[in-house]
Amino acid sequence: MTRSILMKAARIYGPHDIRFIDVPTPQPGRGELLCRVVRSGICGTDHAIYTGEFSFVKSGAVPFPMTPGHEWSGVVEKIGEGVENFCRGDRVVGDTSVACGVCYECLIGRYDHCRKSRAVGTILCWDGAYAEYILMPARHVFPLPETITFDNAAMVEPAATALYAVTLAEVKIGDTVLVLGSGPIGIAAAKLAKLCGASKVVIVGRKEFKLRKALDLGIDDVVNTDITPFEEGVRNAFGELGVEHVIEASGSIELFKKTLPLVNQSAVISMVAFYEKLINGFDIDRFVFGDIKLRGVAGSLGMYRPVLRLMANGMLDLTSLITARYSLDEVPGIMENMPERNATRIKEMIEFPG
Fold first, then answer.
1. What is the spatial distance between Cα 181 and Cα 254, in angstroms, rounded to a whole number?
2. Fewest CB within 10 angstroms: 66, 102, 298, 348, which?
3. pLDDT tens digits for range 17-69
4. Which of 210, 295, 291 is nearest to 246 (CA)?
5. What φ, ψ does residue 2 adopt, rounded to 5°?
6. Which helix (H) or strand (E) holds 323?
7. Is 324 helix (H, G, I), strand (E, B) or coil?
8. pLDDT tens per residue, range 112-157
9. Which of 3.40.50.720, 3.40.50.11740, 3.60.15.10, 3.40.50.300 would CATH assign to domain 158-296?
10. CB 250 within 8 A of CB 223
11. DSSP assignment, residue 171?
């Protein structure tokens, strides 16, 4: 009888029940890679799953037990049959979702349209990277250029989500962009909007530490709503240019509502936050008569390659957003007190030995 090889993992068994335990190390089947995790980012969604506040936990779409962790970088450890483009020791990152691989959409390479896809570490969970190893289909793994560090590589997923938000907001050269929220996706979106050629990008938030980090990355201006009223700050920041494009990454319904009267005719708003509730008092007439376009942002499939190119060429370095580092065995404790660090927490990272 073959004895299972075990690995360490932090698995969630239900709300407020996360355990640092030994679990069987997965073995790669045909077309799969087993990757040793080197870095794993801690996301607000992971915490919402842990607390049970995530809407998909409430709907039953997040199964327990599960291993979170959808922002990771690592090294190929084992290669399954039929995989030709990877070697043991390759430095890699992985997609945020795993498509079925056999439906029509998958066969033509449109993995983001697969109706049977499973999100890594979240919805319909494909076990994630809060573990020493992660199993991934090779079609969802990307090699890392030598110039990208493991730290920056672990930021590819939030950057890819941010790029998708910027893309759906239709940001072009010379545009004005308002970003709501100073978390990692909001700051990354602001930086990417500048790289897309926006003439002015302004971030709104409440934490001075985070807003200063955004300014250090070359964002044009910030509005701290603990100091300046939102409407006044936004109008002063944009002046007669007004707001043409909005990226909503705050998750604040009130902030979203306050934004509507401030945007220009035919503005485009992309929404990349979770709200966990219905929006009452939604001013639909403002959208109709303002000819405003509203886009929902779900996932980041298709955005990894351009983000990796930007990082490889030195145009996108988000490692300054890493505000704390932990070992895997510390995860249960840091999940419990995560809200206490909100003032200075942007991206926390799990580091693995070796």
1. 12
2. 102
3. 999 999 999 999 999 999 999 999 999 999 999 999 998 999 999 999 999 99
4. 295
5. -75, 135
6. strand 322-326
7. strand
8. 889 999 999 999 999 999 999 999 999 999 999 999 999 999 999 9
9. 3.40.50.720
10. no
11. -
